[in-house]
C-alpha cells in the first residue's frame, strides 16, 4: 500500500512538472507572438508615417496661378477703345501634364493667327514661400508648332530637354489675393537684340478675367525702342 501511494505521488509530481513545463512553453509562445505582433505593428506605423511624409503636398496657390494662365485671350476691347493698340490673340495651353506645369504660348495679330510673332513655352513653378516663377523657353523649329495650342498632345513628340531657356527672362510673380497675381522680370536681366534693343522687360498682371502684359525693349542706355508706350496690353479671356 505504501508502494502504491508512493507510485501515485511520483506520477502526480511527474504530471505536475509536465503541466508546468507546458504552461511555461505556452506563455513563452504567447509572449513571442505578442512581441512579433507589436514589432509588425511598429513597422507598419513607421512605413505609414514615412509614406505620409513623402506624399507630395498639393500647392493650391501654384495650381491657382497655373489655371488662371490657361486659355485663349485677345485685346480686341482695348484695340477698339484705343487705336494705338493692336488686336492681339494670345493662346496658352498646358502640355506635358505628367512632367510639370508647362504651357505652350502663341501670340499673333488676331487677323493673322497663322503667322504668330511669338511662340514660347512657359514653366510655372513656386520660387519661394511668397513668389512664383514663370520661366521662358524657346522652341526648336518654331514653324512646326504653329496652331498646336489646339492639339497640345502634339508636344509628346519632343521632350522638355529639347527646349532652350531664356536666362534672366523669367517673370517673378506674387499673389495679391484670390485669383490675382502680379510680377515682372528683372530690371535689366533679360537680354534682347530685337529692333536694336539690349534688354527687355515684362510686367504682368493675371486675374480670372484677363491678363495684362507690358513688354518693352530698351537700348544700352535705357531708351525705349519697342513695345507699347502707354501701358500694358489687356488680354480679355475668351474661354
Automatic annotation (TrEMBL):
Sorted UniProt keywords: Lyase
Keyword match Lyase: yes
GO molecular function, one term: lyase activity
Record has Lyase as a keyword: yes
Family: Belongs to the CpcT/CpeT biliprotein lyase family.
Name assigned to this protein: Uncharacterized protein
Organism: Seonamhaeicola marinus
Lineage of the species this protein comes from: Bacteria, Pseudomonadati, Bacteroidota, Flavobacteriia, Flavobacteriales
Amino acid at each position: 500500500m505504501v508502494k502504491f501511494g508512493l507510485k501515485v505521488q511520483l506520477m502526480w509530481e511527474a504530471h505536475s512538472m509536465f503541466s508546468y513545463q507546458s504552461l511555461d512553453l505556452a506563455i513563452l509562445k504567447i509572449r513571442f507572438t505578442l512581441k512579433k505582433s507589436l514589432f509588425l505593428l511598429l513597422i507598419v506605423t513607421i512605413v505609414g508615417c514615412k509614406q505620409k511624409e513623402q506624399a507630395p503636398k498639393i500647392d493650391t496657390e501654384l495650381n491657382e496661378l497655373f489655371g488662371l494662365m490657361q486659355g485663349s485671350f485677345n485685346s480686341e476691347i482695348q484695340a477698339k477703345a484705343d487705336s494705338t493698340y493692336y488686336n492681339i490673340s494670345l493662346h496658352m495651353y498646358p502640355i506635358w501634364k505628367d512632367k510639370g506645369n508647362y504651357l505652350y504660348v502663341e501670340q499673333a495679330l488676331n487677323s493673322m493667327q497663322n503667322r504668330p510673332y511669338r511662340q514660347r513655352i512657359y514653366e510655372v513653378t513656386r520660387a519661394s514661400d511668397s513668389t512664383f516663377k514663370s520661366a521662358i523657353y524657346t522652341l526648336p523649329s518654331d514653324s512646326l508648332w504653329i496652331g498646336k495650342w489646339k492639339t497640345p498632345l502634339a508636344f509628346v513628340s519632343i521632350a522638355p530637354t529639347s527646349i532652350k531657356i531664356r536666362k534672366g527672362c523669367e517673370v517673378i510673380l506674387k499673389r495679391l489675393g484670390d485669383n490675382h497675381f502680379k510680377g515682372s522680370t528683372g530690371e535689366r536681366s533679360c537680354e534682347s537684340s530685337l529692333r536694336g534693343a539690349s534688354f527687355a522687360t515684362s510686367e504682368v498682371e493675371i486675374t480670372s478675367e484677363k491678363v495684362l502684359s507690358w513688354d518693352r525693349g530698351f537700348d544700352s542706355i535705357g531708351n525705349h525702342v519697342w513695345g507699347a508706350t502707354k501701358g500694358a496690353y489687356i488680354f480679355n479671356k475668351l474661354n
